[in-house]
Amino acid sequence: MKLRQLHYIQEVAKRGLNVTAAADALFTSQPGVSKQVRLLEDELGVDIFVRNGKHLVEITPAGQRILEYTARLLLEADNIRNIAEEFRQTDKGELSIATTHTQARYALPPVIQRFRERYPHVTLHLHQGSPPQIAKMAVDGSADFAIATEALELFDELVMLPCYHWNRSVLVAPAHPLALRYRDKPLEMTLEAIAEHPVITYTFGFTGRSKLDQAFSARGLKPDVVLTAVDADVIKTYVRLGLGVGIVASMAYDPIIDHDLVHLPADHLFERSTTHIGFRQGMFLRGYMADFITEFAPQLSREMVDEVASITEPETRQRRVLELVAKLPLL
């Protein structure tokens, strides 16, 4: 059994049993991958994949168990490499982050700027996607960190640490009725008043959209959502065109860039959301990885991260995470 063969079966499973796609991802040939998979199966004496002619169509029950252990073995192999690199080149390496557009556009730039000043020889890779895509990348090792707010149930296989709370703001054109009525008294703005107008906000599953829907539903309201997008800049563009009331993460409002819009804080109308950063259970964090977490969430020291990561019992870890949530700042 060779480590390379384990990489091959993991990649084939990750690519939906498409051997050609796996070979491309591994920078090798399709026949080479097929041959090594067969050799591994022959050595083990069981099939990992079910075949229909030349095509793989399913993972066998034995294959499912083998892939579970393969993921652990490959993670430990990565840990060994990272430990060696940590002692050989402390400030050199790579860091891959999977996150949403809102985090990448508004929360991360100053963090990455400071991190790059401290670690100029660390190459950063930033991947944007939906919460399911982000979770998958972190779980399968395509990304070191996942940063997300929505659909945290998808991240059960990761150590998820709370970073900060945030809330929403309403953005409207200066002549909009909400601006004329609430510009000087935003705390008097109600969900009923917002629901009287077309709404432009995030696509469901992105940037705390579920809590926005819950707030209206709890009041028996069904707002007329005329446009959704994953990008707050897109939302603001259509607000400027007069298509509706924009509801965005407050961090997406820039008083200089968005000087032509009226900003109405809506913290009193919506439950706050919490952004988390996560990584695979058992992953060795190099020094610069731990420093990135602390740069993003200063309250998360290396000692605290290691403490939470060392808790293997899910309920115990969740209780500890909730204790941390209670102390979070509001961004």
Brief descriptors of the model:
alpha/beta; five-stranded mixed sheet; elongated; 331 residues
Structure report:
The protein is α/β, with parallel strands linked by helices. The protein has helices spanning 3-14, 19-25, 30-44, 61-88, 101-118, 131-139, 177-182, 191-195, 209-218, 232-240, 287-296, 302-309, 314-325; strands at residues 49-52, 55-59, 93-99, 122-128, 145-148, 158-166, 168-172, 199-202, 225-229, 245-249, 262-265, 273-280. The strands form 3 sheets. The chain has a 5-stranded mixed β-sheet, with helices on both faces. A 5-stranded mixed β-sheet has the order 9-8-10-7-11. A two-stranded antiparallel sheet has the order 1-2. It is elongated. The mean pLDDT is 91.
Point out poorly predicted stretches.
Answer: none
Rg, Cα atoms, Å? 23 Å
Shape: elongated
Q: Main β-sheet, in a few words?
A: 5 strands, mixed
Number of strands: 12
Bin the helical content: 40-55%
Strand content: 15-25%
Number of helices: 13
